[in-house]
Amino acid sequence: MPRIDIGGITLNVEERGSGPAFIFIPGLVGLLDAWEFQLAEFSQRYRCIAFDHRGTGDSDKPPTGYTTELIARDVIALMDKLGIDKAHIAGTSTGGCILQTVAIDHPGRLRCAIFSNTWVKADEFIMRVQTTRKRIAVTYGPAEYVKVSSLFTNGAQQFRFNLDKVMELEKRALTTVAPVDILAQRLDMSMLHDREAELGKIAAPSLIVGTLDDATVPSYQSEDLHNGIPGSRLIVMPEGGHYSYRRHWQEWNKTVTAFLVQTAANAYPYEKLNAFGR
User: Fold this and answer.
1) 269: preceding bond cis by omega (within 30 degrees)
2) Could you tell me the CA-to-CA distances from 238 to 128, 149, 154, 212, 247 in Å, in that order?
C-alpha cells in the first residue's frame, strides 16, 4: 500500500479499480482494512480509495491536532492529490462524522454520501462508551485498548461467526497502534464532534445505515441524522453490530449499489429500496 504525501502529512492509501471515484473513510480505529469487503466488490465498477486516518495504521502520527474537521481536510487534500474532483464517499462511525464535515464544508466535492453506524453528536450513552475506552487506554495501554475496542466495534455475532476476520483486523491494529496520548486525543475528537445545527446544509444524496444491536452507536443516532439531512434515506438493520458493513457485507453492498445506481440515474428522492431494514 503506498504512502502519499498530501501536504504536511503522509497517509497510507489503498487504491483499486477504475471508474467514478468512491472513497471509504474508516471509523475511530482508523484502518483502511476495515473496508476490505467493499474494496473487493466496488472496485469492479469504481475507482475505490481507502486510507488509514492520520494517527493510525501506517499513516503519519503527529503528536497533536486531531479533529474531525482536520481529517475532513485530509480527505479533500487526498482527492486533490489524486486528481479527483467529485466522489461517492462512505464513512462509518467516526468516519461518518468526518463525512458530515466534508458534506457541509466541501459540498461541491461529493456525488453522494453514505453514512454507516454514525452519530450526530455524542450523547450520554456515547460519552460513556468513549470515556470507558479512553480510561482503558490510559490505564492499561494501547494493546488493551485495541482488544476492548474490538468488542465494542465487532459485537458478539462477529466474534461467533466471523472470528478469523475479527482477529485479522485486530492484528493489524495491534501492530500499528498509536501511543496513548494520540489515542486519547482521537477519542476526545469523537466526543467533541457536533455539526447538528448544520446538517440541513447537506445537499448531496445521502444514505444512512444503522443497526438495532449496535453496542457503540445506538440506532436512534441514525434516525437523528436522517431527520437532520433533507431527503436522506434511512435503513435500519435488525442485526449487524457496529460493523454492519462487515458483519452483513453482502446486504450492505447490495443496498449501497442500489443507492449508487439511483443516484447516477438522478432518481432522487429515492423510492423504497428492496433490501434489509425499512
Assistant:
1) yes
2) 23, 22, 15, 5, 12
- The dihedral built from the CA positions of residue 85, 105, 259 and 272, taken in this order, carries a sign that is negative
Residue 259 cell numbers, joined: 443507492
The answer to whether 197 and 125 have CB atoms below 8 angstroms apart is no
How buried is residue 111: exposed, middle or buried, by Cβ count under 10 Å (0-12/13-18/19+)? middle
- pTM here is 0.95
Q: Which residues contact 269 (CB under 8 A, 6 or more apart)?
A: 231, 233
Q: Which alpha helices (H) appear in 14-162, and where do they start and end?
A: 36-42, 68-81, 94-105, 124-140, 142-161
253 close to 260: Cβ distance less than 8 angstroms:
no
Report CA-CA distances (Å) from 11 to 46, 61, 85, 93.
21, 9, 19, 20
DSSP element (H, E) containing 48: strand 47-51
Tens digits of per-residue pLDDT, 222-252? Answer: 999 999 999 999 999 999 999 999 999 999 9
Phi, psi angle pair for 122, to nearest 5°: -70, 120
Per-residue pLDDT of 62-112, as tens digits, reads: 999 999 999 999 999 999 999 999 999 999 999 999 999 999 999 999 999
Mean pLDDT of 11-19: 98
Segment 41-76, tens digit of pLDDT: 999 999 999 999 999 999 999 999 999 999 999 999
H helix runs in the chain, sequence order: 36-42, 68-81, 94-105, 124-140, 142-161, 163-176, 180-192, 219-228, 244-247, 249-264
How far, in Å, CA of 87 to CA of 116, rounded? 17
Cα-Cα-Cα-Cα torsion 58, 62, 65, 70, nearest 10 degrees, comes to: -40
- How many CA atoms does the CB half-sphere of 98 hold within 13 Å? 28
